[in-house]
Design a protein that fits this description.
alpha/beta, Lyase 2-enoyl-coa Hydratase, Chain  A, domain 2, 6-stranded mixed sheet, 11 helices, 9 strands, 47% helix, 14% strand
Length: 278
């Protein structure tokens, strides 16, 4: 796989994915959109980690969609290529949406560490993460409205679950920047750190704490929380009952209780590789 967009490290059951194009403000090229789901799915399918951390390099987390995507003959060149109209454009947008959704669909938690600008497609991406952390200089912007677009890759259905709808609409209609302090107050991010180094240290500490828990229980927790977003309380409670009836592992519970009492890391099985369907 190309190293143009990402640096990937897996250590102590934590997968760390870094955006690696700081000289271009980590803009999202076509390679970015194609490679990220492959990276995430490879980690998830193999059960290669218990937590995924996504961070970036340089001044900005990401400046959003790279201008080369808008100028490509395969996307929004302005010519009459079939890909720019109708079904072709629909398939392209769906591909971008799937790139973002891979974070939400991964069995393990995804933590986003954000410095500087989180713009346009960056907003789509981080709203699909499980938790978000930021430096004091971070800001968030729904950039699409500023270039005459309606954001279409995932911001709206997720952002309106994370912050008040009126605030989400204000950000979407005006394209203004939301500071880290405002994002924390609104509930978009979990915590603010004074600088990038301290943020990564803090996020890794949280990731390490999660990695000590039973992976199957963490998977179940993420699954149920995500399910509850689109279902009634009654349906969700029923799903929890079915989940635990089929997934609960008494040995894992016994080990968790024992490890907690002995103040040590539990000795748990990693998530099994996903079964291929084709």
């Amino acid at each position: 796989m190309s190293d143009e967009c990402f640096e990937i490290e897996i250590q102590d059951e934590i997968a760390h994915i870094r955006f690696a194009r700081p000289e271009r403000f980590n803009s999202m090229t076509l390679d970015f959109w194609n490679e990220l789901p492959k990276v995430i799915d490879n980690i998830d399918n193999k059960g290669a980690a218990r937590v995924i951390v996504i961070s970036s390099t340089g001044k900005h987390f990401t400046s959003g969609m790279d201008l080369s995507v808008f100028g490509s003959n395969n996307t929004l060149s302005g010519n009459d290529s079939p890909i720019t109209r109708g079904a072709g454009m629909y398939e392209l947008v769906k591909r971008f949406q799937n790139t973002v959704s891979c974070l939400e669909n991964a069995r393990m938690p995804v933590l986003a560490a954000i410095q500087g600008g989180c713009i346009g497609g960056g907003m789509d991406l981080v709203t699909a993460a499980d938790m978000r952390y930021a430096t004091t200089d971070a800001f968030f912007c729904i950039q699409e409205i500023n270039i005459g677009m309606t954001a279409d890759v995932g911001t709206f259905p997720r952002l309106t679950r994370l912050i008040p709808e009126g605030l989400a609409k204000e950000l979407a209609y005006t394209g203004r920047r939301m500071t880290a302090a405002e994002a924390l107050d609104a509930g978009l991010i979990n915590r603010i750190y004074p600088n990038h180094e301290e943020m990564l240290s803090g996020v890794m500490e949280t990731a390490q704490e999660i990695s000590k828990k039973a992976p199957l229980a963490i998977f179940g927790t993420k699954q149920i929380i995500n399910y509850s977003k689109d279902h009634t309380t009654s349906d969700t409670l029923d799903y929890i009952s079915i989940w635990n009836a089929s997934m609960l592992q008494p040995k894992e519970m016994q080990e968790a209780i024992k490890a907690n009492a002995e103040k040590r890391k539990g000795d748990f099985e990693n998530l099994p590789p996903r079964t291929k369907t084709n």
